[in-house]
Structure formats: structure tokens, C-alpha cells
Design a protein that fits this description.
Strand order of the largest sheet: 1-2
Mean pLDDT: 79
Low-confidence stretches: 1-18, 451-455
Number of helices: 15
Shape: globular
Order of helices and strands: EHHHHHHHHHHHHHHHE
Number of strands: 2
Largest sheet: 2 strands, antiparallel
Helix content: 55-70%
Oligomer: single chain
Distance between the termini: 6 Å
Length: 455
């Protein structure tokens, strides 16, 4: 049985039910959670933005991102085996590098996690307003925030049940989209270059790398799975497997959809609006009927992503609150369902920013936080297994040095390819985190509360 003890506070409440989750999630539930977080149709989240950025080489950018994400997914799996608890990057880096770096890593991770539900609400507003121009965007955003918050307060089981329906709907739509795309292409009089989406005139590796860096936000579902470690029986085995399955399935879906979208609509510079460029693609492939089906399915996917992303970030806030790094009220579980209600409500309030922010700004902020977190996890594997555990031998050097090092280099490469706006916003966020850290530790004069979780 897990026991949780804070060396600065040994009172019994740390081992009560207010500090422990239920464990309803198996492998299938975790994979659904991760895919819902990623959204199988997430290729259309930044479709117009990245297609224009890469000059029509979106599938190539996805290939590069997938390779980097698989290496990082492997590192997440290794760290879950070492520390199967809520908190994800925050927990792993704190255990590997100490409380101060753990706080900064966790704080930067929040830039990723907190803004992802906000991104989902923003997209729901964009596409529903496109389809129902007479209804203000704010109505869709506020309605979505309210409904998602209620479902999260009810408990993770309700989210899993809803995910089944929404994931299946997206997969069915992808099959229909691919079939109609093949039919559309077969009716063209001019020959189609099957390798064109990967390499054609205007190919530029720096531009493709910049696009690949933004596409990291499409893969955030695999790392979100790690935040469910305390709600999963046997997390050391189940979580790493779920992470790899989610990464591979999501990456393959993104590649297939982006490939056919590029084939049927190669004019990457002629979108009416880059934010809703997917509507142009759907209209060409299947007319207004497919546009209607896409809008309904995509908005449903965004809704599913909002549900699981809010659940995920609330677990990170819970871990940091339970630890004393953030206000302890965030570290309490309430009701028979044992949900972090205070953290869930805080994320809902923060999501109201979706009423005022742009899609480009949100995408850049999420990618900055994600790539910083991914780099930290890759380094944590090397530190934990080779330095702390002192493992030696060629097999261990391959598993705990070579692969994580490749993951670290690939994520750093992508990180440095982000725009200057990403770094400006990201570094300001990290600076705010440093100010909070100074406040918590009173200028580093006090140690941060140390949470010890033992088997």
C-alpha cells in the first residue's frame, strides 16, 4: 500500500483519503485518455499555420516530430517505472535534480498543461462560430468550460465513458476522409505525385524544423498519461506500455491525415483563413456535407481533449499542492470520487483567457513548455539510472544513456527552432516561476517541503 509522508509535517492527514486517488484506469482506459488528449483530428489544430510555415511540407514535419516524441515517450516510461506517482515532469525532475529544479520544471510544464484546455476551448469557439456565425464565440467557449468542469468534478470514470464515444467518432471520420480523398484523387486528370507531400519545390529544413517544433503540441497525450499513475493499478507496467501505444497510434494517424490533406489541397498559400484552413480542405474533398461532419466531429474531439487536459493539469497542480510547492488547498481530494476540486476550478478560471487570446500565441506557448519538459525528462533518466542507481554495462548504457541522450538532443533541436515569440513568452513565464520559488523559500532561506512517497 502506498503511504505518503511529508518530513516537515507528519500529521495523519497525509495518509488519509484526501490524499489518495481511486484506481479505475486500466490499459484501455489510459490509451483512450491519451488519444482523447491528443485528439486524432489534432492535425487540423495548427494545420493552416504549420502548412504555410513549412511551405506545404506538413507530413515531413510530422515525421521529424514523431521520431523525437518516440524517444521521449521511452524516457517517460522509464521514469514512471522509477516514480509511479502523480506530477509527471515535476515529480521526475524533483527526484532526479532536487526540489528547486523540480519546481521550475513543474512550473514550466504548467505552461503546457494549463494552456492546452484553453486551446481546446479556443478551437471550439473558432469552428462553431465558423458554422454558426450568428452565435457569439464567447457563448461556445463559456458553455464548453462549464460542461467540462462539471464532468471533471464528477470523476475520471465519467470522462472515460465519454471518451469512448468521441474517439470512435473521430476514427470513423478519418476513415471517411481518407476514402473520399482517394476517390477525389482518382478522378483527377493530371497525375498525382505520391511523394509530393514530403518533398517538393520550396523544401527548407529550417522551416520544417520550426513547424515540427509547433507540432509537438499534437503529441501531448502521451505525457499526460503519466499524470494518471496514481489512478492506475500496477502503473510501472501499464503506464509505459500505454505511453508507447498512444505515441505510435497518434503519430500514425497524424501522418495519414496530413498526407492525404496535402495531396488533395496542395495550394498551401491559398487558405481563406489559416486558423480554419481545414474547412477549405473538407469542402474540396466532400463539399458542405463533409464540412458539417468535420465541424461536428472536430468540435467533439476538442471537447474530449478539454476534458482530459483539464483532468491532467489538475493532477499536476494536486501534486505540487500536496508537496507544498503551491498552496496546499490544491493538494486535497474531495467527495466520494476523490477529485482535486480546487485544482479543477482553478484551471476553469484560467481557461477564460480563451475569450481574448489568439491561436498562434497559444500554440507557441504550449510548444515551449512541452519541449522544455521533454528535455528535462530525458536528462532525468540518465541522472536516475546511471548516476543515482549506478547501473553499468552495455545494455544499461544503451537503455539509460544513448536513447535518452538522443531524445534530449532531438527535443533541444526542436526547442531552438521555435519562434522568438515562444521564447519571449516562455522565459517570462519561467521568470514568474522563479519569483514564486523565491516567495515559497523566502529567498532560498527555507527548504521546500519534501514529499516522500514510499512503497
Amino acid at each position: 500500500m502506498n503511504t505518503i509522508k511529508n518530513v516537515a509535517d507528519t500529521t495523519p492527514h497525509h495518509t488519509s483519503s484526501t490524499r489518495r486517488f481511486r484506481q479505475p484506469l486500466g490499459l484501455v482506459g489510459l490509451v483512450l485518455f491519451g488519444l482523447a488528449y491528443m485528439v486524432p483530428l489534432a492535425v487540423f489544430t495548427t494545420y493552416g499555420l504549420v502548412t504555410q510555415m513549412t511551405k506545404g511540407h506538413l507530413p515531413t514535419a510530422y515525421l521529424l516530430t514523431l521520431a523525437a516524441m518516440l524517444l521521449t515517450a521511452y524516457s517517460y516510461g522509464r521514469m514512471v517505472q522509477a516514480h509511479p506517482y502523480s506530477g509527471s515532469v515535476y515529480t521526475y525532475t524533483r527526484k532526479a535534480f532536487g526540489a528547486y529544479f523540480g519546481f521550475i520544471a513543474g512550473w514550466t510544464l504548467l505552461l503546457d498543461y494549463i494552456f492546452l484546455p484553453l486551446l481546446s476551448y479556443l478551437l471550439i469557439g473558432i469552428y462553431m462560430s465558423e458554422y454558426f456565425p450568428g452565435v457569439p464565440t464567447a457563448v461556445w467557449v463559456l458553455g464548453s468550460i462549464a460542461l467540462v468542469t462539471v464532468l471533471n468534478l464528477v470523476g475520471i470514470e465519467s470522462i472515460t465513458r465519454v471518451n469512448w464515444v468521441l474517439i470512435v467518432a473521430q476514427l470513423v471520420f478519418i476513415v471517411v476522409f481518407v476514402a473520399l480523398s482517394i476517390h477525389n484523387l482518382s478522378g483527377q486528370s493530371e497525375p498525382v505525385s505520391l511523394l509530393g507531400p514530403f518533398h517538393h519545390e520550396g523544401f527548407s529544413m529550417p522551416l520544417i524544423m520550426s513547424g515540427a517544433a509547433i507540432l509537438c503540441l499534437s503529441f501531448l497525450g502521451f505525457d499526460a498519461v503519466s499524470t494518471m499513475a496514481e489512478e492506475t493499478p500496477n502503473p510501472r507496467r501499464t503506464i509505459p506500455l500505454a505511453i508507447m501505444v498512444v505515441s505510435l497510434l497518434g503519430g500514425l494517424l497524424f501522418l495519414v491525415v496530413s498526407y492525404f490533406a496535402q495531396l488533395v489541397f496542395p495550394e498551401w498559400g491559398s487558405f481563406a483563413d489559416p486558423d480554419s484552413a481545414s474547412v477549405d480542405v473538407m469542402r474540396r474533398v466532400g463539399g458542405e456535407l463533409l464540412v458539417t461532419g468535420f465541424t461536428a466531429t472536430y468540435v467533439a474531439g476538442c471537447f474530449a481533449s478539454a476534458m482530459v487536459s483539464q483532468a491532467s493539469v489538475s493532477r499536476v497542480l494536486f501534486a505540487m499542492g500536496r508537496d507544498g510547492a503551491l498552496p496546499r488547498v490544491l493538494g486535497n481530494l474531495v467527495s466520494k470520487k476523490r477529485v482535486p476540486a480546487s485544482a479543477i476550478m482553478l484551471v476553469s478560471l484560467f481557461s477564460l483567457i480563451a475569450l481574448f487570446i489568439t491561436l498562434d500565441t497559444v500554440a507557441n506557448m504550449i510548444s515551449f513548455g512541452a519541449l522544455f519538459a521533454f528535455s528535462a525528462v530525458n536528462l532525468a533518466v540518465i541522472k536516475h539510472y546511471l548516476v543515482d542507481q549506478k547501473l553499468r554495462g552495455s545494455r544499461n548504457y544503451l537503455m539509460y544513456a544513448a536513447l535518452p541522450a538522443l531524445g534530449f538532443l532531438s527535443t533541444i533541436w526542436l526547442w531552438t527552432s521555435l519562434s522568438s515569440m515562444s521564447f519571449t513568452i516562455g522565459l517570462c513565464w519561467m521568470g514568474l516561476g522563479l519569483v514564486c520559488l523565491l516567495g515559497v523559500t523566502r529567498g532560498f532561506r527555507l527548504k521546500m517541503p519534501e514529499l516522500q512517497i514510499a512503497e
